[in-house]
Write a structure and sequence with these properties.
The protein is of the alpha/beta class and about 475 residues long. Helix content is about 40%, strand content about 15%.
Length: about 475
């Protein structure tokens, strides 16, 4: 375990082997029967108490989260608040998602005698649900993989990223302190492939939930489906922002700068490409460049820091490669583009200018998980939509314009799971389904309500009252 801001070792943890994972799954399966039979009101009370404990321990969690992820302390504080709210929302929403219904079967001719039948539909938990957490948001992804899953009566076994396991381990301890029974939530730290292969192949695991790259997510989905397991995948994105000439371009530039460079660009719904209508292209680029220049990069524990390091040396080298590819394929380096000469995995906030939005550079086609932002012009609405839809991804998008009719036309035409008008691609409502289309949208969408619904099954009780 290395602090990405200092490259200092902050912890050494034993890696779980497959036998360790099996034991964790066995314990979760053993706890499932008792937990699933616990009244919903009691489960909800424990989740609310867990939220309280997380909130009370926020300063301790904050130090852990900042040191292992490199996330600036202000952003880390916001993430912890979000995690608390996910636990609270799970406790509060469960009664509505799981309430069931009584279908009127007397509306159907077949089978005969339906007028004498009373049907009650309830929802029952699956069993053990395994989850993989991301390194960029270790607290909120823990909350998403755990809170709605256990609120619904399942038990959870989660694997944090090997870059950021300490946050998950500490949160699991707080859940136990709050009174969540042993076995209901288990954390295993180890190799992603080894741990997740056991999750998928273990017959006691009923469902899997994965946050990570599309490439790995496709493998998880294929393996899980091949074994009859439910799977939920939160994959990659290459989220575009479209800026029309009638927009408030100063406001748009401010929103885009924050949406791209927050957490050093390491967010799946970060703005990753910007297309600007040609009459205001140069002016927008000038304002955006000034915004980028004002970003303070430094110690993530400093309250004044805007952007910290990338998670690893590998990601720094990936940014260097992307910038080299972009400049070789017509991109002009406006600002940044290099590793910062200091200890830690720091890379300059980088702005690239393209004369043609259809250029073949990787930064305009792939998910760039770092502080590199390409900007290109467009001439009309049709071209803007074409450029926005030019990647294999379709997670989220943003449109900046004063014309709401145009905004709605473009929002309908852009292939994405959500389109924000005059707002950030980073907008997400944790209680609602989150996901996209194309290679950002296979499997069920994540969210407090959606997760509880997906990891439960309908069960019918049919009473013949004749």
């Amino acid at each position: 375990m290395v602090n990405p801001a200092t490259e200092e070792v902050i912890a050494a943890l034993p890696a779980a082997g497959r036998e360790d994972v099996r034991r964790a799954v066995d314990e979760a399966e053993e706890a499932f029967r008792r937990w699933s039979e616990t009244p919903l009101r009691e489960r909800s009370k424990l989740l609310l108490k867990a939220a309280q404990y997380i909130e009370q321990d926020s300063e301790g969690l904050l130090r852990v989260l900042v040191s292992e992820s490199g996330k600036p302390v202000r952003d880390a504080r916001a993430e912890l608040k979000r995690a608390v709210e996910i636990f609270r929302a799970s406790a509060e929403e469960a009664r509505y998602v799981l309430e069931g219904r009584a279908p009127r079967v007397d509306a159907y001719e077949y089978p005969p005698g339906n007028e004498h039948r009373l049907v009650v539909e309830g929802r029952e938990p699956l069993g053990v649900v395994a989850g993989a957490l991301s390194y960029n948001n270790p607290a909120s992804t823990f909350a998403h993989k755990v809170a709605p899953v256990i609120a619904a009566g399942n038990t959870a076994v989660v694997k944090p990223s090997t870059h950021t396991p300490l946050t998950a381990l500490r949160m699991a301890e707080l859940l136990k302190k709050a009174g969540v029974p042993d076995g209901v939530v288990k954390v295993v730290v180890g190799s992603g492939e080894e741990v997740f292969d056991e999750f998928i192949e273990n017959p006691r695991v009923a469902g899997v939930s994965f946050t990570g790259s599309t490439a790995v997510g496709l493998q998880v989905a294929a393996k899980a489906a091949g074994r009859g397991k439910k799977f939920m995948v939160a994959p990659s994105g290459s989220d575009p922002a479209i800026v029309f000439a009638d927009a408030d371009i100063a406001k748009a530039a401010a929103v885009v700068a924050r949406a791209r460079f927050e957490n050093a660009g390491q967010n799946c719904n970060a703005t990753k490409r910007v297309y600007v209508e040609r009459p205001v292209f140069e002016k927008f680029l000038e304002i955006l460049s000034e915004r980028v220049a004002s970003i303070k990069v430094g110690d993530p524990a400093d309250e004044s820091t805007d952007m910290g390091p990338l998670i690893s040396e590998k990601m720094v080298k990936a940014m260097e490669g992307l910038v080299a590819d972009a400049t070789a394929k017509g991109g002009e380096l406006v600002r940044g583009g290099r590793r910062i000469a200091r200890r830690g995995y720091f890379f300059e906030p980088t702005l690239l200018k393209f004369a043609d939005g259809a250029a073949g550079a990787k930064v305009l086609r792939e998910e760039v998980f770092g502080p590199v932002l390409p900007v290109a012009p467009f001439d009309d609405e049709e071209e803007a939509v074409e450029l926005a839809n030019s990647t294999i991804y379709g997670l989220q998008a943003a449109v900046f314009t004063a014309d709401y009719r145009r905004a709605l036309r473009v929002a309908r035409a852009v292939k994405a799971g959500a389109v924000m008008v005059n707002d950030s691609t980073r907008v997400r409502f944790d209680a609602l389904p989150y996901g996209g289309v194309k290679m950002s949208g296979f499997g069920w969408r994540e969210g407090v309500r959606a997760t509880m619904y997906y990891f439960t099954e309908p069960k019918y009780l049919v009473l013949n009252v004749e």
